[in-house]
Write a structure and sequence with these properties.
The complex is a heterodimer of chains A (277) and B (246). By secondary structure, chain A is an all-alpha fold. Helices cover 69% and strands 0% of the residues of chain A. Chain A is built from ten helices and no strands. The longest helix of chain A is centred in the middle third of the chain and has 30 residues. Chain A is elongated, with a radius of gyration of 30 Å. Chain B is elongated, with a radius of gyration of 34 Å. In chain B, strands 3-2-1-5-4 form a five-stranded antiparallel β-sheet. Chain B is built from seven helices and five strands. Chain B has two domains: 191 residues, Butyryl-CoA Dehydrogenase, subunit A, domain 3, CATH 1.20.140.150; 33 residues. The N and C termini of chain B lie far apart (116 Å). The chains are: A mainly alpha (277), B alpha+beta (246). Chains A and B meet through helix 1, helix 2, helix 8, helix 9 and helix 10 of A and helix 2, helix 4, strand 4, helix 5 and helix 6 of B.
Chain lengths: 277, 246
């Protein structure tokens, strides 16, 4: 929706600048848009934002390219695109006359860069797999028997890594053949998932996006028992509070209600200790 | 063969869901039962007057012919009828929430946020009623909580104050509804996107480092330029035509 609004405004601006032949303004606008988009991509990948004083746009694009190459073996920005950006930037900075062709190139560059959707990869733990429904492939209904747990865990780890690698290769081939930039997001998520998994090899790998596997967790019953005890705790504390208020307002009832107060209060403390143990 | 393997298909969350539904039913039934009763007997255990309070019918006497000269009752209801109706509506709406929706098969946990809100309202409302009724309605009018036998020496009467089955059932309904609601809230908390925090941080850094671009201002500048050129062109044409006519 936001992109649609920007596109409408840009269309308006292009039409108006065509009338006034003010191509410098268009060049300035698109170069700034490209700069902002590259900054956003770089930040999400974990790079520092571009330093406009010391770094050209093409240099930042080369940095992003090398990051993606190291990570997922994909070069997103082709050499021709980087050269185009370099030329456009030089021309606009040198205040030379800006032609329509240059503007067309800038518009193409901007919309090419906008196709790249990058997830936030700048935090390692609690990584959310939102949008990646392929997470289900990690578990193929294997149940781990407590007797050969360690062996099963190693085997499962190998299986999982194999699956991730296979999936990665498949998406990479698809991107290279069809030049579908939108799949790069999936590729980056898989890569981050693999890294996360390799870091946590010794502990259990917990796929957080799939609710189905949360319910197969053995600790669920103990948590529910705790919730049940918590509800009793809340109720007994409510009862003891009510009786306490009543005794404050009507002290004459102390002899009658004190035993009830002690029972409820005692139960509250007992439940509190049980829940905290 | 262990119990777990025998009951492979039996899921514990189904059990808790059933308990939740029982809790809902208890809460609905409790609204129609008596929440408080006062029994007045003489020393020979003969019943003098029996008063009950229920949510829908307010205070009722067992025998309408006998007037109540013994106890001052509150003039208003504990909860007004609209509030009771809203509570009933919430309870009835929680039924489809819990019955129809199968959270186990949901892929996107963040869609459960509304679902968890819907489920947690019923126990919360129940709890509020459990607090409000004794503390703000009974105790200020010297209607004792939970059970008291009072001896009136002047009138030689025994007055039995006690909470009714409605209140007790409401308390049970809270205990039954609580675990399932907490389960859903916990799931939503675990599975909700924790990337939001980083997204905000990135937005903040971007705001500091981005070149601010007001496309609307640029459009306005160009439009002004076009208008200005048009005006200048028109005024120069007018001048030219006036010079020519002279």
């Amino acid at each position: 929706m936001r992109d649609n609004m920007i596109d409408l405004k840009l269309k308006n601006l292009i039409l108006l600048c065509k009338q006034t032949s003010n191509y410098e303004k268009l060049a300035f606008t698109f170069i700034n848009l490209i700069n902002n988009k590259l900054n956003e991509i770089g930040l999400k990948l974990g790079l520092a934002p571009r330093d406009p004083k010391n770094e050209f746009l093409n240099e930042y694009m080369i940095q992003i390219n090398s990051f993606l190459e190291n990570g997922v073996n994909i070069k997103f920005f082709p050499e021709s695109l980087i050269l185009t950006v370099h030329d456009c930037e030089i021309i606009s900075m040198s205040h030379q006359a800006i032609s329509k062709e240059l503007i067309k190139k800038l518009i193409n560059v901007y919309y090419e860069i906008r196709k790249l959707k990058i997830p936030i990869l700048t935090f390692k733990k609690n990584f959310s797999l939102k949008g990646l429904s392929e997470g289900k492939f990690l578990f193929k209904g294997k149940r781990i028997n407590s007797a050969n747990f360690q062996e099963s865990t190693d085997l499962l780890n190998l299986l999982i890594l194999e699956e991730i690698q296979a999936k990665e290769n498949k998406i990479r081939d698809f991107i290279l053949k069809d030049h579908s930039k939108s799949d790069i997001e999936k590729l980056l998520r898989l890569k981050a998932l693999k890294n996360l998994f390799e870091e946590n090899k010794k502990s259990h790998f917990f796929s957080k996006d799939n609710l189905k596997y949360y319910f197969e967790n053995n600790n669920l019953s103990s948590k529910l028992v705790k919730d049940f005890l918590l509800s009793l705790l809340i109720l007994f504390s409510l009862m003891s509070l009510t009786i306490l208020i009543e005794l404050i307002l009507h002290p004459i009832l102390l002899s009658s209600l004190s035993i009830l107060l002690f029972i409820f209060f005692g139960l509250t403390i007992l439940l509190f200790l049980i829940l905290n143990s | 063969m262990s119990l777990k393997s025998k009951n492979k298909k039996f899921q514990i969350h189904h059990f808790v869901k059933i308990i939740y539904i029982i809790g809902l039913i208890c809460a609905i039934i409790s609204l129609f039962l008596n929440w408080y009763s006062i029994e007045i007997r003489d020393y020979s255990s003969q019943l003098v007057l029996n008063l009950h309070y229920s949510m829908f019918f307010n205070w009722m006497k067992s025998n309408e012919n006998i007037s109540n000269n013994y106890i001052t009752l509150p003039s208003t209801e504990a909860f007004s009828q609209p509030i009771i109706m809203i509570f009933l509506l919430i309870l009835f709406l929680s039924f489809p929430f819990s019955l129809i929706s199968n959270i186990r098969n949901k892929d996107r946990a963040f869609k459960l946020q509304n679902y968890s809100l819907g489920l947690i309202i019923s126990p919360m409302f129940t709890f509020i009623m459990l607090i409000y009724f004794p503390i703000f309605y009974l105790i200020p009018y010297e209607l004792y909580f939970p059970f008291i036998i009072k001896q009136d020496l002047e009138l030689n009467l025994l007055i039995f104050y006690s909470i009714g089955p409605g209140y007790i059932l409401q308390a049970f309904s809270f205990i039954f509804m609580f675990p399932y609601s907490m389960l859903i809230v916990r799931i939503v908390e675990i599975f909700s996107n924790k990337g939001d925090v980083m997204e905000e941080k990135i937005k903040k850094i971007l705001n500091e480092n981005q070149n601010r671009l007001d496309i609307d201002a640029l459009i306005a500048e160009e439009e002004f330029q076009i208008e200005k050129n048009r005006f200048l062109k028109n005024s120069s044409l007018k001048k030219f035509s006036s010079i020519k006519s002279n």
